[in-house]
Here is the input.
Amino acid sequence: MDRKTFLELLEKYRNGTASEEERHFVDVYYRLFEKDKDVLRQLNEDDRRRLQERIKRGVDKKIAHNRPSRRSLSYGYYAAAAALIVGLLIFLYRPTSLEQDVIATQQDSIVPGKNRATLLLETGKEIALSDLHSGIVIGDSIKYEDGQVVSSAIAGQMLTLKTPRGGQYALTLPDSTRVWLNAESSLRYPAHFGTNERYVVLEGEAYFDVAKVVSLDQNGLSRKVPFRVQTGVQTVDVLGTQFNISAYAEDNKILTTLIEGNVKVSLGDTEGEKERMYHPLKPGQQTILQGHNLTINKVDVSLFTAWKEGKFVFEQEPLENILKMLARWYDVEIVYQGDKPSVTFTGSMSRYEHISEILDKISYTQAVQFETEGRRVKVM
Here is the structure.
């Protein structure tokens, strides 16, 4: 970027016509200078002092020229005015290395996912859940795990918990079943379960720890109440167990991994019981459903539940699958420069590492390289 283009960008920022990406660049640029007092480290102390004085005079002059009311002065306005002066001076001293620093600072804005979710009520109301809490509890009302009330008018409603890209959240259902939602996922469930079955609908990925529930039938005999998870054409029936389901639409497959207990996986219309074929699973087994083709394999379950423990764990995992996971968790876009590399990786990393550290570890193999621009990761 030359000085002329840079000044034009700052003028667009000042008059409010800059795009979101351009505004972000200027904000990052200003924060970089504010954060790194030695950004012009080759200057001596006198030069730095004179530079600070010139910046102050430039900001005061820019503010005086535009004469906004005192009340309307905002951080963005000061930032633009300061950046106009700072930017011109910095480009005079080191135009190339500073742009690299700005790009690096933009990369710092790519942070790992955190506790983020939205609760959708049947009335259409949306409640943005606090990122200071990790989950909610459904009972007579909806509360955070510390007892703080989120919503009280939920009787008879169907509710949906939804996580965005870069989000995760936990949920305790009315029967005490615990569910952990991974990024870009949703779970639809009733505010209260009936006595015949417990039914929920999943999109994306979730880990279930299903509570055992017993009720009385019409003859007064006790019976176990089944828990049913619907994901597309697949249904998982359980009584009390722990399992993980990954059903992202972009993956074109559904993985159901059993950790403990017993489950039955079936395909077809949930109403047509006689037409459904059940596939029982044992702990350590996993079903893979692609289209209407279902297979059962023995797996290392830790590979498929590591996300719940805050880790990425891969064993000969295709690069494309790994990058999909990173895209959902770090909320970035993956762009391939050319054909998708047909390589696999094995390793374990924290989900809370900076994305650049994870990409560096993958690129150490020299099988693939990455370049980050804003929230876009280029694969080369």
Observations:
- The helical segments are 3-15, 20-35, 45-66, 75-93, 95-108, 302-305, 319-330, 355-363.
- The radius of gyration is 27 Å.
